[in-house]
Amino acid sequence: MSEKAILGIETSCDETAAAMVTHGGEIRSSVVASQADLHARYGGVVPEVASRRHLELVAPVVREALERADATLDDVELVAVTHGPGLIGALLVGLQAAKAIAWTRRLPLVAVDHLHGHVASLFLEPDPVEPPFVCLLASGGHTLLLDVEDKTGYDVIGTTLDDAAGEAFDKGARLLGLGYPGGAAIDRLAREGDPEAFEFPIARVPGLDFSFSGLKTALLYKVRELGDAVDARKADVAASYQRAIVTALARRTRQAVEERGAARIAVVGGVAANSELRAALPDAALAPLPLCTDNAAMIASAGRFSEAVAYPRYLALDAYASAG
Ligand code: KG4
Ligand code: ZN
After folding, report:
1. DSSP structure string for 44-99
2. Atom of ligand 1 nearest to the CA of 86
3. Nearest bound ligand to CA 275?
4. Which of 95, 168, 185, 212 has the highest count of CB atoms within 10 angstroms of its CB?
5. Residues of the chain with CATH 3.30.420.40
6. Is 86 in the pocket of ligand 1 (CB under 6 A)?
7. Whether domain 5-124+293-316 has CATH 3.30.420.40
8. Measured in angstroms, how far is the CA atom of residue 271 from the centroid of ligand 1?
9. What is 133-287's CATH topology?
């Protein structure tokens, strides 16, 4: 490899990921090993199972990221790794792997906040988005409105009071028997349904916050009410349910833009892959689909704008489960 690069490592949930990204933000490689199939039979991520799988996968995934970038560890100038928020056991696997790689090569290490990583997915080539902007971060674990003034961080201006939007999609999919994770399945099925067939509630919470737990309960009652008829109406239910989630997300995002007088909107996180959400916010900057869900290119990207810790001080770094 001609130019040295940042090795990114991400293991905060159920994706084991590694990537090579240059300082300029060019992705040389990005490898994501999803454990979704492994957790599907449990209907959600089992933390202990995730940690063990990360342990098996982290070395081969890093090796593959290097190979695909036509690189060796000699080409790595900095190791960037997610240290939170996420599943603590899962995070520790990536963090220890990153420490070991950096320490043996006497490289610096940068510990990256997973949410900053999602935002930094927007700073990658070939179409980097320039701050300031208001950013909707909607994933399986988080639903946040962020004020992004520059590339080094963000301010939280809104959050969910209960479930994340992705969680609402996943729980809805489970109630409809669509498997796990269910966001993409609801998205597909909703295309064949009528989004106005049923009315689902959109929570009225103050400020710029969100709430999705009432919606999930409403779906549970609707499925019970329909009984055997639910199979014939599944696409209509999925479309109406998706409409309620997307309306809540789009409304709050527009409100945030207005209140902040922001010139731009961006959407990141797994739910940014949702076709109705993309259509509802046509003026929003979006990361390419593979960068919307968890990946390590976004972690390496964030590492470009965070302070690196010199060898060997990072050996004392710890992981954290939740933000704040
Ligand atoms: O960002 P991500 O990969 O992981 C977390 O950090 O949580 O997001 C995963 C979430 C899951 O809840 C999944 O159902 C949802 O993103 N998702 C979608 C779609 N694709 C993935 N939700 C709605 N529509 C989609 N097309
Ligand atoms: Zn994520």
Report:
1. S--HHHHHHHHHHHHHHHHHHHHHHTT--GGGEEEEEEEEESS-HHHHHHHHHHHH
2. 6
3. 1
4. 168
5. 5-124+293-316, 133-287
6. no
7. yes
8. 4
9. Nucleotidyltransferase; domain 5 (3.30.420)
